[in-house]
Write a structure and sequence with these properties.
The protein is about 40% helix and about 20% strand. α1 runs parallel beside α11, α3 packs across α4 and α4 packs parallel to α5. It is α/β, with parallel strands linked by helices.
């Protein structure tokens, strides 16, 4: 359980991976991933008082997250930048140097989302892929803590001092990490600071939190658990449900399937769990009160939204907080518009602050 007096972190979503729509499945050039569009979303989230913003990574989709983070760092003031880094795409020492440099550009506001799906052109079984992730996380933490790295692993064999470029506080930024396979959960328990889960019923999310806390404790560690979900909030529940229906009003089944299959993690355990949640929902797409699974018809990852009026959305978030969630990564369509709506109706009523100061 999370103490209601303890602030939660509330983050928004940068939509770098061509994941912004007025109508799901209907591309809109004005909402395609680009510097003008995505930087506008992030600046809006900063202005609205969000604590963090996820900058997602995709090879075939959108624009590069690392380059974007370096640029947006100097166009934002308060918001932390949750940069998604796909393990295996770069050389560990150079990645450490880039991350430290971006943290400097951002004045110490960098956080890191570790992505462990396959890299473009390569497929690894789960075991070795997560072993590579484990070693990279260990190596990055050592180098970003300003320490000498001595590692003779399966994927990282290095003996070197850290780069002169260092983070603002000389410490590794917190690692956010998600995954539902046994290999993924073990790496998260051992190496992550924040474990991100996808939308599910409150009871199921609570069970995931309990499991991950137990796994982390076995390593002598503590985790913050976070929830990555969409939101649709309007003045009334009827308006919110109508907005959800409108979002899907032009989607056909073939287009939805094509969108779901674009992602490099389209066959992951987590994606399968989102499909099962969608299959368990009623005819209206709701798996339980105010939890709508329709978004998963055209999205590989997080496939459900909290839908309702301001009181209902806030109550649902508080229910997840009471189940042990300490961070939220939220999004909505179109992302800039929903960012404004959520900030107006809900964010100002939440007890929230960035997680990053908790490490140090």
């Amino acid at each position: 359980m999370t103490d209601s007096s303890t602030p939660v972190e509330v983050a928004w979503f940068g939509a770098l991976c061509d994941d912004d729509y007025e109508f799901l499945g209907v591309p809109d050039p004005s909402l395609a991933s680009s510097w003008p569009h995505c930087s506008d979303i992030v600046r809006t989230a900063d202005r609205n008082g969000f604590d963090n913003v996820l900058l997602p990574s995709g090879y075939g989709l959108g624009i590069d997250s690392t380059a974007f983070a370096a640029a947006i760092a100097t166009h934002t003031t308060n918001i932390n930048l949750l940069l998604a880094v796909r393990i295996g795409e770069m050389w560990v020492p150079q990645l450490a140097r880039q991350l430290a440099s971006i943290d400097q550009f951002a004045g110490g506001r960098l956080t890191i989302n570790i992505i462990s799906s396959d890299i473009p052109g390569e497929t690894l079984p789960s075991g070795p892929r997560y072993q590579r992730t484990r070693e990279w996380m260990q190596a990055l933490r050592i180098l970003l803590n300003g320490e000498h790295l001595e590692m003779d692993g399966e994927f990282v064999k290095l003996s070197l001092d850290p780069p002169r470029a260092a983070t603002v506080d000389g410490r590794c930024p917190p690692f956010y990490f998600g995954g539902f396979s046994e290999d993924a959960k073990d790496v998260a328990a051992a190496e992550a600071d924040v474990f991100l889960t996808w939308p599910d019923t409150v009871a199921s999310v609570g069970a995931t939190v309990a499991e991950m806390n137990q796994r982390a404790a076995a390593y002598g560690r503590e985790l913050v658990c976070g929830l990555r979900t969409h939101v649709i909030v309007r003045e009334t529940e009827a308006e919110a449900r109508a907005a959800a229906d409108r979002l899907l009003s032009k989607l056909d089944a073939d287009t939805g399937a094509e969108i779901r299959n674009r992602s490099l993690d389209a066959a992951s355990v987590g994606v399968q769990r989102q499909a099962a949640l969608r299959d368990s929902a009623g005819d209206d797409g709701y798996a339980e009160a105010n939890l709508w699974t329709g978004i998963g018809r055209a999205r590989s990852g997080a496939g459900a939204a909290i839908v309702g009026d301001p009181d209902q959305v806030l109550a649902k978030l508080e229910a997840y907080r009471d189940a042990g969630i300490g961070a939220f990564v939220l999004s909505g369509y179109p992302h800039k518009d929903e960012c404004d709506l959520f900030a107006r109706y809900v964010l100002a009523r939440m007890n929230h602050s960035p997680l990053k100061p908790r490490w140090g």
